[in-house]
Specification:
With 208 residues, this protein is of the alpha+beta class. It has a single domain (5-206), classed as Chitinase A, domain 3. The chain is built from five helices and eight strands; from the N terminus they run ααββββααββαββ. It has helices at residues 12-17, 28-45, 96-108, 116-125, 152-161, and strands at 52-53, 59-64, 76-85, 90-93, 135-140, 143-146, 170-175, 196-206.
Length: 208
């Protein structure tokens, strides 16, 4: 996501305020309503007003359907992803060029930082030695199966979008905090009770 890393500074203050080791308990219904409002604003600001919502509450929008091979039952699908806060601050990606751009940004823009710990975390997260590996899924009549353990909102978003795209397509999913990292957050980059988003891009399929 080329525009994502450019917005890192915008989300910097938000990141600096969150401590992933602090559990913040908020009434689940209140938190869900707060997340829903934030996600709706995010999707509308991005121009994705016609987004859809899964039964669990994940919002999704097909940005590009793609003109490559179609994804059929029993296919093995390899896909790239980029995870971000609703401020567009990227916290994870499988795309090396994005990771390299983020690292370069923080290497070149280190003057006047108020939180050098966050600066170092970004450099470590997107280090030169980082492995940028796409994910793989398989499709069957019972649905999508992703190799590995993932937050429930991610798997729900994948299931909702991948039968609506071809190779070369792109979807965005926005996940309420309860279906993401909840009241614990995740390290220093994802504060407790934080809704997040992912761009998903199928890049290759293997037919069985």
């Amino acid at each position: 996501m080329k525009k994502g890393f450019l917005a890192i500074v915008v989300g910097f203050i938000l990141l600096a305020c969150g401590d992933g080791n602090v559990v913040v308990q908020i009434d689940p219904d209140i938190q869900l309503e707060k997340d829903s409002i934030a996600i709706a604003e995010y999707m509308n600001e991005k121009g994705y007003q016609n987004y859809l919502t899964t039964s669990s509450g994940v919002r999704y929008f097909i940005i590009e359907e793609g003109n490559g091979a179609s994804i059929d039952e029993s296919d093995f699908v390899t896909f790239d992803y980029t995870g971000m806060l609703l401020s567009d601050t990227i916290f994870d990606t499988s795309v090396k060029s994005i990771g390299d751009s983020i690292r370069t940004h923080f290497l070149e823009d280190s003057v006047g930082l108020e939180d050098k710990d966050i600066h170092e975390i970004f450099l470590a997260t997107f280090s030169e030695d980082e492995s940028y590996d796409p994910l793989k899924i398989t499709y069957s009549a019972s649905g999508w199966t992703i190799q590995g353990q993932f937050i429930s909102g991610f798997t729900d978003g994948v299931s909702a979008t991948f039968n609506k795209m071809n190779v070369g397509g792109k979807a965005i999913i926005a996940i309420p905090s309860a279906l993401a990292y909840g009241s614990n957050g995740s390290g220093a980059l994802i504060a407790p009770n934080t809704p997040i988003a992912f761009e998903l891009m199928p890049i290759e399929i293997t037919k069985q």
